[in-house]
Design brief:
With 281 residues, the chain is an alpha+beta fold. It has ten helices and eight strands. An eight-stranded mixed beta sheet has the order 4-3-2-1-5-8-7-6. It binds zinc ion.
Length: 281
């Protein structure tokens, strides 16, 4: 991405963040990785009123090479990029509710928020709290570095969140990790406790599904179409319980085959290509 493209995107996202009241006044800052360094919001600027022409441009050493002086919190961004090579953008805000949570006395420092929604678990995972440091104290960057390897989002105590976003290159890594799991399923037996968890989860969702008329109906239709008969809940539970780690391995060997697996990737893929040879598992 060129600095000009990044400056335009930062201006657009900045306005969207400001309009949604996620940060106020001149607080909050955004940066994006560009071809030869970073584009970053200037110091004392409002995210609601950025100008692409004056966006700070930093070289790969963090030296200012164009635009206005960058945000005084540039060191927070640098800490994230340093530890997370796949990081393409960083957003730091003083958003009201996050700041409020970061000021609470009795929160779990390893994970500030409980997993309230599935979306939160998916997008944030666990959110650790970084202790309070006075404004401008560079020890804050060390504290961010210490946690950035395991977390793409951290909450600064009495201050606000710092969140790193990944780039398109991360999609390739995700595909590689999934294929590695497939290989493992083919080569090794799944551990007993994992199999137990999977069975319990499956039985739980089967029973919950019975509470919805539409899922009951589609279940009946599926059974009729695939097997020509209806299976009672007892029969299904019994079949689930009879599955062994050996069965799982056998099925994995049958289905996880480079020639027949299909891959679906959603999003702005920007030239992202995966060949069938890359799907070896
Ligand atoms: Zn701040």
């Amino acid at each position: 991405m060129t600095p000009a493209q990044a400056a335009k995107l930062i201006t657009r996202f900045g306005k969207s963040i400001f309009d949604r009241r996620l940060t106020a006044g001149t607080s909050g800052n955004i940066s994006m990785k560009v071809d030869d360094g970073w584009s970053m919001t200037p110091t004392n600027s409002s995210l609601g009123d950025l100008d692409p022409a004056t966006m700070s441009r930093l070289d790969t050493n963090g030296k200012l090479i164009g635009g206005k002086e960058p945000t005084k919190e540039a060191f927070l961004h640098r800490a994230m990029y340093e530890i997370r090579p796949d990081c393409a953008a960083v957003v730091h805000l003083h958003s009201t509710h996050s700041v409020a949570v970061s000021c609470l006395a009795d929160i779990d420092h390893h994970n500030v928020l409980p997993p309230i929604t599935a979306y939160y678990v998916m997008r944030v995972g666990t959110l650790p709290l970084i202790p309070y440091f006075k404004p401008g104290d560079l020890k804050l960057a060390d504290a961010v570095r210490a946690l950035a390897g395991k977390h793409h989002a951290v909450l600064l105590a009495n201050h606000g969140p710092v969140v790193a976003g990944t780039s398109i290159e991360a999609a390739r890594k995700v595909v590689e990790l999934i294929l590695k799991e497939f290989r493992q399923l083919k080569e090794e037996l799944v551990p007993e406790d994992e199999l137990r968890r999977a069975k319990d989860h499956l039985k739980g969702s089967l029973m919950l599904g019975l509470e919805s008329t539409s899922s009951r109906m589609s279940n009946l239709a599926r059974q009729q179409m695939y097997f020509g008969r209806f299976f009672s809940l007892d029969e299904l539970v019994e079949s689930i319980e009879s599955v062994t780690a050996g069965h799982v391995q056998q099925i994995a060997q049958q289905f996880f085959d480079q020639k027949q697996i299909a891959l679906t990737v959603l999003g702005n893929l920007d030239g992202f290509r995966i060949a069938r040879e890359d799907l070896a598992c």
